[in-house]
Amino acid sequence: MNAPISLHSQLDRLTSWFRRTDAMPDRAALHRLRYEQIGALLFEHGLEPSTANFDFAGRFLDGREAALVEAAQELIDTKGGLTDRDVERILERCAPADASDKLDKLTRELEAKVAECLGAVGEAATSTSAYSTALGEAAGQMESAPGETYRRLLEVTLEVAETTRKIGGRLESTREDTRRLRADLERAVREAEEDHLTGLPNRRGFFARMEAMLARTDAAPFALALCDIDNFKAVNDRHGHHTGDRVLRFVGRTLSEFLGRRVMVARYGGEEFVCLFQGADAEDAADTLDACRAQLRDRLLRDQTTDLPIGRVSFSAGVTNVHGDPADALRIADELLYAAKHAGKDRVVTSTTLVASAA
After folding, report:
1. What are phi and psi of 135, to 5 degrees?
2. Sheet of 354-356: strands edge to edge?
3. pTM of the model
């Protein structure tokens, strides 16, 4: 990371000509200026020229997304700059609400179909009630006017049969629509809460499941860990992003299989994973996680595409107990992870002890 620099120092020099009143730049000049601004921002903060970082820089410079601008500026003010991980977190936090909008739309459609079904059932009940009333009236008129009574009963019966047929068709159609909407809704929930690369829960899925787990008071205590693959950028730079993706899947699978079913493992973003330990305090969770770290580091990985050696892959982690607001635990775990990185990486850190260091 370069030394902290004022965010707009280079940008101001680039845009100084833009503020002249003697000329108006054309569209190509505006595009060229924006590319220069984006490049200056990435270079100034030592950010990788990735698609995600270009997206962030463009949206930041555009200035119309207050939440994104405020989140970035807060980190710049407190840390003196941005990292690739900072940008990824900001983008996830300020992501467009497409998934949420889709879920809301499907939920509303499903509710409308249920209401339609209930309306049809209500109409059927009304028709049945009217038929019952007509039968009662016919019973009283049978002796005095049997012919007219039979004619009226036939009319009412035919009307009820037609109404029942129509309602039955509507109910069948509504049932099919409801079945389809339920399947679409379940699929949308899975897509919204699952990381497509690793198959693990994503951040949204993690928070949803964590809330449900924490609500079960009989499952306490809980511990939370944030893990970050060490030197992951070097893997991407040396072997490419496809190999990096395979490493991410391998680490996620290793964590999930080693830690077992009582630990929820999710991809938190980028090369970070979050683990929620049920029935374990921070020290016990750290011991288990450290054993997983050691097993992972002992593996010598090889690029399956090029057959070139990748070498050893390790992770650093911060572990803390969960008390009260889980957001506090996430913040503390992130601080401990930061400490583990600065202590030399390849280690697990709790708030009370350094559990392990690289051998």
Report:
1. -65, -40
2. 263-269, 272-278, 222-229, 315-321, 348-350, 354-356
3. 0.55
